[in-house]
Amino acid sequence: MMGVTPHVTVALLGRIKGETGEKYHLMPLRDETRSGLQPRLWIGRALDALERRGIVRGPLFRTATGHPIRFGIMEPKFIERLEMVQIARPDILSDQIEVAEVYGVRRSFRRGSTTEAGNRGVPPEIIDSNNRWRRVEKAGTRQASMAMQEHYTDVRISLDKLLIY
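Below the sequence we write its predicted structure tokens.
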């Protein structure tokens, strides 16, 4: 597609909170975020590291046997890394923040990103579009399930809005 904002699309597999009918979530991310993070670069490096080991399919975060790592296993290492950032770069992560409480895996990353988007003035319809709450709400008691092709098309059509988020 011509003129599309440079981005990388990450496929999250498994059940995502609030999406009872979905087993996957396609999440487009800008090549570089407003805060200077470079998702495409780091995702590419992680994939390259797996490919050097002969791994070209399956989860990015995996056990030695190739199964997805559970968040409960990853959380202590994740928190430890954030605490290291907090010590080294208090300009990025204030020493007044209780890292485990605020960024623990048990906290919803979606909730935090939604709050951040609202603080940046992202319109509610774009936030809803990104979080795909409308589809879940419209489904009512039915499951809001889509085929992968429909889901992919939905993401492509909404790409500009999703990248604003």
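Residues 103 and 109 are 8 Å apart (CA to CA).
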